[in-house]
Amino acid sequence: QAKEAGRNTLRFFDTEMQLRLQNRARLEADLRKALPNNELVLYYQAQVNAAGIPTGYEALLRWIHPVRGMVSPGEFIPLAEENRLIIEIGAWVLETACHQLVVWADNPATAKLTVAVNISPVQFHEPDFVERVMQILERTGASPQRLKLELTEGLLVEAQQQAREKMLRLKQTGLSFSLDDFGTGYSSLAYLTQLPLDQLKIDQYFVRHLLDDLANAVIVESTIGLAHSLGLEVIAEGVETEAQRVWLTEHHCHVFQGYLFARPLPVEAL
Ligand code: C2E
Ligand code: MG
Ligand code: MG
Ligand code: MG
């Protein structure tokens, strides 16, 4: 009987896995058409200063699938990285965000806004990444001083020397770098002093548990201190409550992003 149950379980997993693979294959086929079919859009989430005023926005990719509706980036970005579609998609994101900067530059009320763009490691490690960014800046006429590229720790750990060289070349254009999801990677902190970073972004996990887990609070406090000592700006992401904002302000973090201030929104809704 155990044997029978085992066989049934196996068959059950078989079917489930098959469904999952089919689903994935369909999603992947659809993703190939997403860009030509204009199904990708950028949402923008405010990054605010101590007075609660937006100084810039993070561009967050959304896929409006004709049947499934909104597909979250957590679902399709890993897929796009595996099949390398992220290289074209990422270039589109950068170009669209740069266009937005040009539109904002035209109006005195928005001219100083910055835009932060997430860069996938797959995109960053392409040999012509630096050239592509420069071409997009040139083609759109966006001011590099208003553009921030968000990188993740994992990206900087492998091939650190190469990463450093790419960053230095890009820094010469005037753009800046933010280290996203800080504290979630596995790495030594040495790279913080060796790479031309401008901002540390405290991961939302630490912010979420700020007031219910002392160890988290200690980590956030140390991170803010570390950032200040290294001359980096520090931003907290995932700020959802007033209590979190107050705690962060008291501990010298003065730039925030999170649902407390604004959700990511299509540009018309900002
Ligand atoms: P991320 O760059 O760390 O972005 C922050 C995520 O947290 C976003 O999720 C945002 O909507 C969400 N968030 C912001 N404030 C709050 C809050 O107060 N509470 C909670 N619970 N969540 C908050 P989203 O938009 O689903 O993006 C997820 C991830 O997908 C991003 O994490 C980023 O790693 C990736 N991603 C998004 N757009 C792009 C893109 O254009 N290119 C690449 N390569 N990755 C992207
Ligand atoms: Mg980000
Ligand atoms: Mg993040
Ligand atoms: Mg993240």
UniProtKB/TrEMBL annotation:
Superkingdom of origin organism: Bacteria
Record domain EAL: where: 24-270
Annotated protein name in UniProt: EAL domain-containing protein
The organism's taxonomic lineage, starting at the top: Bacteria, Pseudomonadati, Pseudomonadota, Gammaproteobacteria, Oceanospirillales
